[in-house]
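User: Here's a structure from my thesis project, written as structure tokens. My advisor, Dr. K., wants to see whether a designed sequence matches the one we expressed. Can you design one independently, without my sequence as a hint?
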């Protein structure tokens, strides 16, 4: 048996999990969550966690980082931490430490999920040796892929969310022009549409075009958010509010917003699938999909996913699953640590 430490390190919170690895799998021994901003660095958080756990020093550790990882170092987004595996290993006394991008951790986490952690949108025709793909809309739009090498899959993150947004109809062309003008930019990434921020942008577009009347409650939330522009922390989440009222069909403008979002999300997932042909499965991660499950299942997402002309028959054979377990990144960090 091997003692492992897994971490999901974000600008807002840090979650640590102590895991025991054996031939039968991974067993969670203890888990705690901390406010990242209350600490000057990751080291004191880990020390506090291990002291409270009253355990021996783990042999290996893997930390999923909300930000890019370059040459075993990471500068966290929205947090003044600079992490280096060599320094962490010396200060913590852990022999082997790995830093991975948080979306790469989602890729590893797939292998720690159960059937109850997934909702299947399309069964497809699974091919065990084929690539796998991961896409997830949340704060941004993460994308990645997995390639089988020997007995294991190697996980590769990507920056596909920053590819160009590709309008498919007149309304989406108008949305693109709106984004370009509003932000005074030369191009718009797909992340500007397919993300929590994207939901708000779509709503603003429809509102400013006076497509329909506003729900007073949602209108106030969006205005409050607009007034907090530039502030590090927001007191409201308009994307979540818009999704909530769209679920219960209590606001036509919000319903139209989520409809455009779903179609753009499905289309981009289909674009990723065309590039990779992930017959091992395409997995939808991120915090948005589980919150609007009935809308993800209403057919709009999968119609846009498969609507690729002559390639439609290929996409209809790709298994598509929504990840329901929001701790998939932490699970992935533990899986990665076990493989070190």
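Assistant: Designed independently from the structure alone:
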């Amino acid at each position: 048996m091997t003692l492992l430490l897994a971490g999901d390190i974000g600008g807002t919170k840090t979650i640590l999990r102590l895991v025991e690895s054996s031939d039968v799998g991974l067993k969670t021994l203890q888990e705690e969550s901390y406010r990242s901003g209350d600490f000057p660095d990751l080291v004191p958080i880990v020390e506090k966690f291990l002291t409270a756990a009253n355990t021996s020093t783990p042999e290996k550790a893997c930390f999923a980082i909300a930000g890019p990882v370059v040459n075993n170092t990471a500068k966290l987004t929205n947090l003044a931490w600079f992490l280096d595996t060599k320094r962490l290993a010396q200060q913590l006394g852990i022999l082997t430490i790995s830093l991975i991008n948080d979306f790469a951790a989602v890729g590893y986490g797939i292998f720690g999920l159960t059937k109850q952690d997934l909702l299947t949108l399309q069964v497809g025709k699974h091919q065990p040796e084929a690539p796998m793909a991961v896409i997830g809309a949340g704060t941004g739009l993460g994308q990645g892929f997995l390639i089988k090498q020997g007995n294991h899959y190697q996980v590769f993150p990507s920056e596909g969310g920053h590819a160009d947004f590709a309008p498919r109809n007149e309304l989406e062309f108008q949305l693109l022009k709106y984004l370009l003008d509003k932000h005074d930019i030369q191009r718009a990434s797909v992340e500007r549409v397919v993300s929590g921020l994207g939901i708000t942008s779509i709503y603003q577009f429809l509102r400013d075009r006076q497509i329909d009347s506003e729900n007073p409650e949602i209108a106030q939330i969006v205005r409050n958010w607009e007034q907090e522009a530039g502030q590090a922390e927001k007191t409201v989440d308009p994307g979540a509010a818009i999704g909530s009222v769209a679920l219960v069909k209590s606001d036509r403008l919000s319903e139209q917003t989520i409809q455009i979002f779903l179609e753009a999300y499905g289309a981009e997932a289909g674009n990723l699938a065309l590039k990779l042909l992930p017959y091992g499965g395409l997995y939808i991660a991120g915090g948005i999909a589980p919150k609007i499950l009935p809308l993800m299942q209403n057919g709009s997402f999968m119609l846009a996913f498969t609507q690729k002309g002559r390639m439609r028959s290929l996409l209809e054979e790709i298994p598509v699953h929504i990840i329901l377990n929001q701790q998939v990144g932490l699970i992935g960090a533990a899986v990665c640590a076990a493989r070190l």
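When you compare it with your expressed construct, this may help: The chain has a mean pLDDT of 94.
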